[in-house]
From TrEMBL:
It comes from Alloalcanivorax balearicus MACL04. Residues 1-31 are annotated as: Disordered. Catalyzes the synthesis of alpha-ribazole-5'-phosphate from nicotinate mononucleotide (NAMN) and 5,6-dimethylbenzimidazole (DMB). Gene3D superfamilies: 1.10.1610.10, 3.40.50.10210. This is Nicotinate-nucleotide--dimethylbenzimidazole phosphoribosyltransferase. Keywords: Cobalamin biosynthesis, Glycosyltransferase, Transferase. The active site is at E322 (proton acceptor).
Length: 355
């Protein structure tokens, strides 16, 4: 009797070559010099192949914010206290956060998932309660999570995509909230890329130079503590369990599940990109389903994007997280689709085509 492997062991489908070819042919026939719309042309072609339809669209956008706390905050790596995680969860659903404003502006659906906060959070309308634990353990002193907790986080990401699929989502954006999560993301990236913390650690919520130096020291201690795991960086699940966060793992699971469901993914900033890096180490074919929204001001983000061979759409100096950078890039995808779908061809317009 065969056993179905866990979803993260199942590769996503390849892009449909017929729609790729049709997309290129359509772009070649539109009333413009070839290539004159730059990356907007390739965006539309890729979306067409991902969605398997000649007229791609990203009208129905699903934004999911995964929230969780981090035990590494005990090391003093954040400029904000840990209770802010729970307070921001309430702010998301009350409509006051940046991603809440952007979601309303885009007409996007916003889902907020509580994976576990250090300060107990009462059930709140609009929050999916999927608590794994009251945050991760202190990654500088112990594994951040058990293998069972890691699997629960991965499944939380998959479950969010299933709800997005049922809602007819045409584009998936994963956001995150968790005081201390830039430390966890930097630790995972250091392990996967074999880079020093000095290269990847940044200010996060607003650390000064002394705070960043302390953060680097904590990361060095964590990487030394988990040196056996770090030595096997081609195994991203143990790296996530030892050094990651619930929301980082949930994002990785969501990206994989979205690709398996043929839903294009628009990746946000540093933390989401680290999750994408871990997910692509599990399934390299995932890269065909990822669009990268922006390069954040976190210094390590450029290195992570380079490792993913990703060229982001925007460079606005943002570093908020929440999915806000990805939401800001949605109008570009919508404009790419509108141009692809609505421009006249040379033949239809009766215009002579150049050589």
């Amino acid at each position: 009797m065969s056993v179905t492997p866990p979803f993260w062991r199942q590769p996503p489908p390849p892009l449909n070559p017929d729609f790729l070819q049709q997309g290129h042919q359509r772009q070649a026939g539109l009333t413009k010099p070839a290539g004159s719309l730059g990356r907007l042309e390739q965006l539309a072609i890729t979306l067409s192949a991902q969605q398997q339809r000649p007229h791609p669209a990203v009208d129905r956008v699903r934004i999911v914010v995964f929230a969780a706390d981090h035990g590494v905050c005990a090391e003093g790596v954040s400029a904000f206290p840990q209770e802010v995680t729970g307070q921001m969860i309430a702010n998301f659903v009350n409509g006051g956060a940046a991603i809440s404003v952007l979601a309303r502006h885009l007409g996007a659906e916003l889902e907020v998932i509580n994976l576990g906060t250090a300060h107990p959070l009462l059930a709140h309308d609009g929050v999916v309660m999927a608590e794994i634990a009251p945050g991760t353990a202190n990654l500088a002193a112990a594994p951040a999570m058990s293998s069972e907790q890691l699997q629960a986080a991965l499944h939380a990401g998959r479950d969010a995509v299933q709800r997005a699929t049922e809602a007819g989502a045409e584009l998936f954006i994963g956001g995150e909230m968790g005081i201390g999560n830039t430390t966890a993301a930097a630790a995972v990236a250091c392990a996967l890329l074999d880079l020093a913390p000095e290269i990847l650690a940044g200010p996060g919520t607003g650390l000064d130079a002394d705070g960043i130096r302390h953060k680097v020291a904590v990361l060095h201690r964590a990487l030394q503590r988990h040196s056996d795991t770090v030595a096997e960086a081609d195994q991203p699940l143990p790296v996530l369990a030892s050094l990651g966060g619930f929301e980082v793992a949930a994002l990785a699971g969501a990206f994989l599940a979205a690709a398996q469901a043929r839903i294009p993914v628009l990746v946000d900033g540093f933390i989401a990109s680290v999750a994408a890096l871990a997910a692509t180490r599990l399934q390299p074919g995932l890269t065909d389903w990822l669009h990268f929204a922006h390069q954040s001001a976190e210094p390590g983000h450029a290195r992570v994007l380079a490792a993913l061979d990703a060229d982001p759409l925007l460079r606005l100096g943002m570093r908020l997280g929440e999915g806000s950078g990805a939401a800001t890039a949605v109008p570009l995808l919508r404009q790419a689709c509108a141009l692809h779908n609505q421009m006249a061809s040379f033949q239809d317009a009766g215009i002579s085509k150049g050589q």
